[in-house]
Amino acid sequence: GNSVTQMEGPVTLSEEAFLTINCTYTATGYPSLFWYVQYPGEGLQLLLKATKADDKGSNKGFEATYRKETTSFHLEKGSVQVSDSAVYFCALSDRGNNRLAFGKGNQVVVIP
Amino acid sequence: DAGVTQSPTHLIKTRGQQVTLRCSPISGHKSVSWYQQVLGQGPQFIFQYYEKEERGRGNFPDRFSARQFPNYSSELNVNALLLGDSALYLCASSPRGADTYNEQFFGPGTRLTVL
Q1: Is the pLDDT of residue A17 over 70?
Q2: Taking CB atoms and an 8 Å cutoff, what residues of chain A touch B107?
Q3: For A32-91, how does the pLDDT look when each residue is reduced to its tens digit (9 = 90+)?
Q4: What is the secondary structure of B36-101 as a DSSP string?
Q5: A98 and B45: CB-CB below 8 Å?
Q6: Do the beta carbons of residue A63 and residue A56 sit within 8 Å?
Q7: Cis bond leading into B70, ω under 30°?
Q8: What is residue B19's three-state secondary structure?
């Protein structure tokens, strides 16, 4: 079945540092890939998406590239802000259905 | 425009009880999905409904059931509650059904605690 694996543990970094969160996936066929963000006390928000190999999703300074050869969709941001502190989830959706399979999430804490 | 709304916000039940959670999708959206998010984990897919019909079900026991009403709102029911059912229950709505991916918009969730 489909599954998403995110790197273990929370991520703590200083303001203006470079952020990378690793995500790899297992899926049959050609899934669409997503990053969702969950701010404290709020619901999930779509951050960015990519629907086919080599696509790059981007939003609010975050980027992720759909790498079919390595089955990865790593999230990056060049200079984080305190307001980026949140939980980030990698997810995929099979073509032909609309159900999302999520990774466990990574807590990101940005220190001023 | 209002986003996805869920009620109640928080709920405390005891083992063996039954619970009903409610979701109102974004106006014009015809599909509703339910997810369970246990603390420290990613959301797990429970159900999808489109045009009042079940279109998908995740790996959850029969104690979990749902329905969608003519106005596209939805209810999730859980019977014979177990401690392990304690979680944040998320509802998501999308414009169309499962023929192709269309963005899902999530509500703030209902926090269920089972004692």
Answers
A1: yes
A2: 43
A3: 999 999 998 788 999 999 999 999 999 999 999 999 999 999 999 999 999 999 999 999
A4: EE-TTS--EEEEEEETTEEEEE-S--TTEEEEE-TTS-EEEEE-S--GGG-EEEEEEEESS-SSS-
A5: no
A6: yes
A7: no
A8: strand
Closest Cβ opposite residue B104 in set A42, A98, A101:
A98
| Contact of B41 with A104, CB cutoff 8 Å | yes
For the record, the structure tokens of B29 come out as 């959206």
Compare CB distances from B101 to A42, A45, A98 and report the shortest one's residue.
Answer: A98
CA distances from B44 to A57, A82, A89, B48, B99 (A): 24, 29, 12, 12, 20
Contacts of B84 (CB under 8 A, 6+ apart): B114
How large is the average pLDDT for residues A104-110? 96
SS3 for B8?
coil
Distance CA(B115)–CA(B113), nearest Å, equals 6
The alpha carbon of residue A74 is apart from the nearest alpha carbon of chain B, in Å, by 17
Residue A17 is classified by DSSP as: -
Q: What single DSSP character describes residue A9?
A: S
Number of neighbouring beta carbons within 10 Å of residue B1: 5
SS3 A54: coil
Classify residue B65 as exposed, middle or buried by CB count within 10 Å of its CB (0-12, 13-18, 19+). middle
Distance CA B3, CA B9 (A): 15
